[in-house]
């Protein structure tokens, strides 16, 4: 799905990761930022996790030398070093200035942030029981450490003095903004509380850290433990490419001769779309949507109740009525009421469209004599039949033209046309990687020859890797302490084809591929001085990546890169026409399953948790909303990692919809431009105001500079094929 990195200080406050999970959605928050400066603290040690990045391209993570036994001692030493840096800033005898307070905070924590890069790999890409034991032990210690920083009274006094000083008006716009962001990070996270309240605030953070870790580990346990192994007589309807990949997945798990349906979206989704075995579809559906909800040792319902209760208590210490008020105060929506209002403007049209979609499916089922009523495990299967009937569009036929490597080349083409970025593979073995599947490219500005950074790609699913798709940074590009180039990574869970065969993916997965690459381009294109300018506004940071999806359907990409994996023939024009004609097909399902999750998220965080029993609350709220029985939330509460494995999207999952309004409006600008989606003047504004500026400028102001006005929701309604009042 279609996550934002902060400076050392903001990282300490929020432990934010950088992008999304599942199809177009982000996920667990793991600390993975890299400070702009690698030279603040010199560490002499054999522990590679504590060492500065080494090798070419300004230094790169030594993934080939990372050892899990080094993680705990590295974290302990990294925290000690960071606290020493913080104490030096807080106890500086000189009067507080931007240079000796805010800039020094930007420099602090480089060693610890490098450690978090490795932590992020173990957490997301190669988890293990041994790592999860360290994670469970260290997460509350890290929380206590971060509280020491945010509750350092002398430090906050200096930050506050700079924020309220006459010097502020003399600073550059970016310097003024990061001063405000730094001050607000302290003020919003307990720095203004009295001693007793601060102590309780820190205790709550530690408890939340433990619970969030347990929540995510429970979900991962269910994903790893529930694998369905099929025999050859149970494969009816499944595409050959999916069958081959499932056979390879079974062999990898020691079940050669069988076919593994793993408990991840990338395996579940195609199985439910094509399998003609309704009983197996129901089994796979139940297994996937009941992750964390099986009444066993990995059940998450009690943890949800504890998380909500502790979050509510914490924000009450700060004077807020509910968690959502606190969370949204510095977002584009500003208030939970504004966020809910946006969704309620779209919700009626979405569920009305679902009713139409179900009627179409039921008609086909009745005509076939199936003698069934459409259930959730039937939706994808009969939606595919409707797609074929209405548009003569076969998803599996389209898939034959969607080769993973060719789509990657298409993304490179778009990056060159819009950003002047070229991607060249680095020599094999010159940059360390953490798995043989990971490949690395050097990114260069084609007009100046300037080195921009490195792009890592980890595309395939495997045991120990969390589900979904996401982007992250291993080093932020900054310039305040010398030029630092970007190190960024895209991560997916595509089912790998057998050796020698092309990996084929669905159209939705191709959109996700472009989406996550949009996050990487947002990192690579950054032109800011300070690490804090990489911090994100959650209901804005998905916009750039959502927008990049639109280039998948441009003629330039279609004509050059969508070629048949066996014949090499370009995708037929009539098939492209069908894809475009069906662009809003099944939009009721997509919008409703997402919005149900977003609305329930807001309801969880605006309701007194004393009245909430998660399992019943989810059912009751969806019933009150008129949720169609044939659809469930995209992320049911017991595995809703976006909001319960961390806090990055808590009370903020609506942000995808907020960003979609911007996306639809910006896409209309390109559609109307003389040069279309490759219009040079508009592309220049796109890069300058929507990508390069990051969070060095207020997002609303940045969008107005790009578009000349604010975005409007009508563009979103048109995009989704929903009725627009007055049109």
TrEMBL record:
EC number assigned by the record: 3.4.24.70
Cofactor(s) listed in the protein's UniProt record: Zn(2+)
Superkingdom of origin organism: Bacteria
Catalytic activity: Hydrolysis of oligopeptides, with broad specificity. Gly or Ala commonly occur as P1 or P1' residues, but more distant residues are also important, as is shown by the fact that Z-Gly-Pro-Gly-|-Gly-Pro-Ala is cleaved, but not Z-(Gly)(5)
Keyword match Lyase: no
Annotated keywords: Hydrolase, Metal-binding, Metalloprotease, Protease, Signal, Zinc
InterPro entries in alphabetical order: M3A_DCP, MetalloPept_cat_dom_sf, Neurolysin/TOP_dom2, Neurolysin/TOP_N, OpdA_N, Pept_M3A_M3B, Pept_M3A_M3B_dom
Record's signal peptide: 1-18
Domain Peptidase M3A/M3B catalytic: residue ranges: 271-720
GO molecular-function terms, A-Z: hydrolase activity
Stretches assigned to the Oligopeptidase A N-terminal domain: 96-196
Free-text cofactor note: Binds 1 zinc ion.
Family note: Belongs to the peptidase M3 family.
This protein's name: oligopeptidase A
């Amino acid at each position: 799905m279609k996550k934002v990195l902060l400076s050392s200080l903001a990282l300490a406050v929020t432990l934010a990761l950088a992008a999304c999970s599942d199809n177009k959605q982000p996920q667990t928050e793991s600390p993975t930022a890299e400070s702009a400066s690698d030279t603040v603290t010199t560490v002499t040690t054999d522990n590679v996790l504590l060492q500065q990045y080494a090798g070419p391209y300004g230094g790169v993570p030594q993934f080939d030398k990372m050892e899990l036994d080094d993680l705990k001692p590295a974290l302990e030493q990294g925290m000690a070093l960071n606290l020493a840096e913080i104490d030096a800033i807080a106890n500086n005898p000189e009067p507080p200035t931007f240079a000796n307070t805010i800039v020094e905070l930007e420099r602090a924590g480089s060693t610890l942030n490098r450690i978090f890069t490795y932590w992020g790999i173990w957490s997301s890409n190669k988890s293990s029981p041994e790592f999860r034991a360290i994670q469970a032990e260290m997460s509350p210690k890290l929380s206590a450490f971060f509280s020491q920083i945010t509750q350092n009274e002398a430090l906050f006094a200096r930050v506050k003095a700079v924020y309220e000083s006459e010097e502020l008006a003399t600073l550059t716009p970016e310097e003024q903004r990061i001063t405000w962001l730094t001050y607000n990070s302290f003020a919003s996270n307990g720095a203004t509380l009295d001693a007793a309240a601060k102590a309780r605030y820190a205790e709550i953070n530690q408890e939340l850290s433990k619970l969030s870790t347990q929540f995510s580990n429970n979900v991962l346990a269910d994903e790893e433990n529930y694998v369905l192994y099929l025999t050859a007589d149970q494969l009816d309807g499944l595409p050959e490419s999916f069958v081959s990949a499932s056979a390879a997945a079974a062999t990898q798990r020691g079940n050669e001769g069988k076919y593994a349906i793993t408990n991840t979206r990338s395996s579940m989704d195609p199985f439910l779309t094509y399998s003609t075995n309704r009983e197996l579809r129901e089994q796979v559906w139940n297994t996937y949507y009941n992750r964390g909800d099986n009444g066993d040792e990995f059940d998450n319902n009690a943890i949800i109740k504890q998380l909500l209760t502790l979050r509510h208590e914490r924000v009450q210490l700060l004077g807020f009525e509910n968690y959502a008020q606190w969370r949204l105060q510095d977002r584009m929506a500003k208030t939970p009421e504004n966020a809910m209002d946006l969704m309620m403007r779209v919700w009626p049209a979405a569920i009305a469209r679902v009713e139409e979609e179900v009627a179409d499916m039921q008609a086909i089922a009745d005509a076939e004599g199936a003698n069934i009523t459409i259930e959730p495990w039937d939706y994808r299967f009969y939606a595919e039949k409707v797609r074929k009937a209405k548009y003569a569009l076969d998803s599996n036929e389209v898939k034959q033209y969607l080769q993973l490597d060719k789509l990657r080349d298409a993304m490179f083409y778009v990056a060159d046309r819009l950003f002047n970025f070229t991607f060249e593979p680095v020599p094999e073995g010159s940059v360390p990687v953490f798995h043989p599947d990971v490949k690395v490219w050097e990114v260069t500005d084609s007009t100046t020859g300037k080195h921009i950074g490195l792009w890592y790609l980890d595309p395939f699913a495997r045991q120990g890797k969390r589900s979904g798709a996401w982007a992250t940074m291993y080093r932020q590009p900054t310039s305040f302490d010398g030029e630092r180039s970007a190190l960024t990574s895209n991560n997916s869970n595509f089912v790998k084809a057998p050796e020698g065969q092309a990996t084929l993916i669905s159209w939705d997965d191709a959109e996700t591929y472009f989406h996550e690459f949009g996050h990487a381009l947002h990192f690579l294109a950054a032109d800011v001085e300070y690490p804090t300018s990489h911090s994100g506004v959650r209901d804005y940071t998905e916009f750039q990546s959502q927008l990049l999806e639109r280039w998948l359907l441009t003629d330039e990409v279609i004509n050059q890169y969508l070629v048949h994996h066996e014949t090499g023939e370009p995708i037929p024009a009539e098939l492209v026409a069908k894809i475009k004609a069906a662009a809003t097909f099944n939009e009721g399902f997509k919008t409703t399953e997402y919005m149900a999750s977003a609305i329930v998220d807001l309801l969880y965080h605006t309701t007194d948790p004393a009245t909430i029993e998660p399992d019943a609350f989810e059912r009751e709220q969806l019933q009150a909303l008129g949720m169609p029985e044939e659809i469930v939330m995209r992320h049911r509460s017991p595995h809703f990692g976006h909001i319960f494995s961390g806090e990055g999207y808590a009370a903020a999952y609506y942000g995808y919809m907020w960003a979609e309004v911007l996306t639809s409006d910006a896409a209309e600008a390109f559609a109307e431009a003389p040069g279309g989606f490759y219009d040079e003047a508009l592309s220049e504004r796109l890069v300058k105001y929507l990508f390069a500026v990051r969070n060095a400028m207020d997002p609303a102001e940045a969008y107005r500079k790009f578009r000349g006005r604010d975005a409007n929701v009508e563009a979103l309604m048109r995009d989704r094929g929903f009725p627009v009042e007055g049109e």
